[in-house]
Amino acid sequence: MKVLQINAVYGVGSTGVIVRDIHEMCMKKGIESYVAYSTSNVSLEEIKNGYQIGNALDKKLHAILCRINGKQAYFSRGSTKKLIKHIKEIRPDVVHLHNLHSNYINLNMLLDFLGKEGIAVVITLHDCWFFTGGCFHYTSVGCDRWKKECGNCPKKKKDTPAYFLDKSARILADRKKHLGSIKKLTVVGVSKWITNEAKSTFLGEKECITISNGVDTDFFNPCASDIRRELGIEDKFVIMAIANKWLLPINRETLKIVSEGIDADSVIVMIGCSDADKDRLPANVIPLSFVRDRDRMRIIYSMADVFVNCTREESFSLVNVEAQACGTPTITYNNTGACETVDGVCGFAVETGNANALVEAIKLVKSDTTGELSTRCREHMRKHMDKNKNYLKYIELYERLG
Known about the structure:
By secondary structure, the protein is an alpha/beta fold. It has two domains: 2-214 and 387-401, Glycogen Phosphorylase B (Rossmann fold), CATH 3.40.50; 227-384, Glycogen Phosphorylase B (Rossmann fold, 3-Layer(aba) Sandwich), CATH 3.40.50.2000. Helix content is 39%, strand content 17%. It has 16 helices and 13 strands. It has helices spanning 13-28, 56-69, 77-90, 107-117, 168-180, 192-199, 227-231, 243-246, 252-261, 275-278, 294-303, 318-325, 355-366, 372-384, 387-390, 392-401; strands at 2-10, 32-40, 50-52, 94-97, 120-125, 185-189, 207-210, 237-242, 266-271, 285-288, 306-309, 330-333, 347-350. A seven-stranded parallel sheet has the order 3-2-1-4-5-6-7, sandwiched between helices. A six-stranded parallel sheet has the order 10-9-8-11-12-13, with helices on both faces. α3 packs parallel to α4 (107-117), α4 runs parallel beside α5 and α9 packs parallel to α13. The radius of gyration is 22 Å and the shape is globular. The relative contact order is 0.11.
């Protein structure tokens, strides 16, 4: 059996690591596995059966045209023709599509080819892009146009910026046409939430299943470090937070309320702060720069007493799972897919936007002096979110389709 995965990145970022893990598992199971991607931090020579799509110049041109024309994944025709030639050469039984919205591929050309060839296709919904008129998520703006026709897009200048034209209605129509023409199409949601969202669209006519993203629970585990001493917070209750969520304009008042509401012996360690961010944080927030090193992140997860993620729209939160695998209880909002690993199991899900509820949940975690929540986090992740267990489900799916 031959399987080809296509994704924007390989070996880096959340989807790139997922693709790499599935690729390696396929080869261990005797499947002839291939990957095609746009960028990677791993050299092409080091990636077995790897194929790089396009180049940096093509991506920049694609991005410019997308911003002018209002349509993403409609350019890169030359690169896509070469990819199709590569697919013809390897003749895969299954093509697995991941993130295709990074200005490197012509989606309609690729889907037309796969449909005409009768190749079994799997698409993983890492976000909502495959069933909308171009946005990645829509809950923060309360939009449901994607259920029918799109148009007059409230996120026109956000997810995939279109500065002049609104082509969301045409994009959605093309999605319905080209994805609908693939007879052997299986849709995989990374959470129950996004699977159910897909079922309410034209994709509901296809097989829709859920396979949660997995985490390396052998790597992400509780570990000791000197980081508390390094930060001068040995005697503090440590709340971990991610800057790119907490510092959004919609969450600024939430940060103020939480920082004022937590106990005097508690501090917030915020990851991913810029120099400009550091000047506008409350006194009990300790800013750290962006962390790219996985070892460093594992140490920070393990050091924290609780991780608070105020994400307002997410198909699945890998940072939640990584923190929990390190034994750190997690608190998040109860919308979209981010809450599916925490509600009543490894932490708490609270009403979206309710800052006072976040404060109460933090104090509830702090009151657990036995470490029971931490133990439950670790056990639950090993049982339900281990990558070796979850990605085996993809192998089983490939074998069934091929």
